[in-house]
Amino acid sequence: MTSASTAGAVRQGSLRELNLAVVLRRIAAADRPPSRAGIAAGTGLTRATVSAVVDDLIAGRLVAEAEPEPRTGAGRPARGLVLASDGPAGLGLEVNVDYLAACVVDLAGTVRHHLVRRADLRPVSPADALARLAALAAEAQAAAVRDGLTLAGAALAVPGLVGDGGLVRLAPNLGWRDVDVPALLAGHRLAEPVDGVPPLVVDNEANLAALGELYARPAGPRSFLHITGEIGIGAGIVLDGSLYRGARGWSGEIGHFPVQPQGRPCRCGGQGCLERYAGQEAILSAAGLPGAELPADTAATRLADLAGAGDPATLAALADAGAALGVAVAGVVNLLDLDTVVLGGGYAPLSPWLRPPVVAEVSRRVLTAAWAPVEVRPAVLGAQSAAVGGAGSVVRRIVDRPVGWLARST
Length: 410
Known about the structure:
alpha/beta, five-stranded mixed β-sheet, globular, kinase activity, WH_DNA-bd_sf, WH-like_DNA-bd_sf, transferase, NBD/HSP70 family sugar kinase
């Protein structure tokens, strides 16, 4: 039987945990640094409670005091509170078909470092690809340490279906099947476990990109479809502020939505999949630009440069890709009643040319478009969205439950 004193201690501990989260979220969501008094007024907590909680958060390097704004009236101006820029940080990693990426994001959501290495990873074994990624992660870790940051976890984005424990069930464009990513990276110390969360979380790249968009500033809609366009095409579905994963965690495979049921064969074994018409390789081919002949810059940048210069073949290729993309988007919008579609990844810099045909197809095919238009816009984070979203998901866990970080840091 639990004694009265033990039960009281548990209740007190739970109350402290709740207060820490309430105050830290308030600071994280504020447009201007709030004062202790302002937080007390906005949350209903007493000033003494807020002061004690803030002291704990400052001691744990989660919050810092900002310089007070000039005040014309009597009295000493109150110091505002901001998320600390020298405390915990998240490490975001990405393996894609033609590049590796690593980035460090601090608690305030600022990208402190972003590294990219371009290489065709299709002929490379999973072990070799992940070894290269670990070397890139080590560079990002070293940069974070020089900044005085502590990596509180890592999130790895992959273009495929991810099962329990980080097992990549299938990444068709990489040729991966049943790859145990955490096991292959076990010898590399990427980050420390915090609050029972493994130091490395593996997720679909479109899901992490959607989370990055959800928490990007300025705040956007709480429900949207986020599409990342690379060689493969993925989608993250956010409904009422939460990522929709589906029954087995594999939602969002819009790249294998059939836009031409008897069309071109796809690597997945199907026919007429969206990525065969709107994926990076399909657009390059239609524009007369085989990927192997591209210079070192990204395919999206090259296509954007040519489209901006009025190249007819590139403009036609982007128009056709946008039309195919619009067919798939219209199906999702009709099914889920979403009012916002975000073009991310390689689609972000191409949105000036992709957006018009996408809007045209959505307007023609979505039942409610006549009186409830669907917004189609580029991602706030652009082509960095998956790696940044992964790093951001790490620091977001701390904002949502700071007690775990504080327990580790004491």
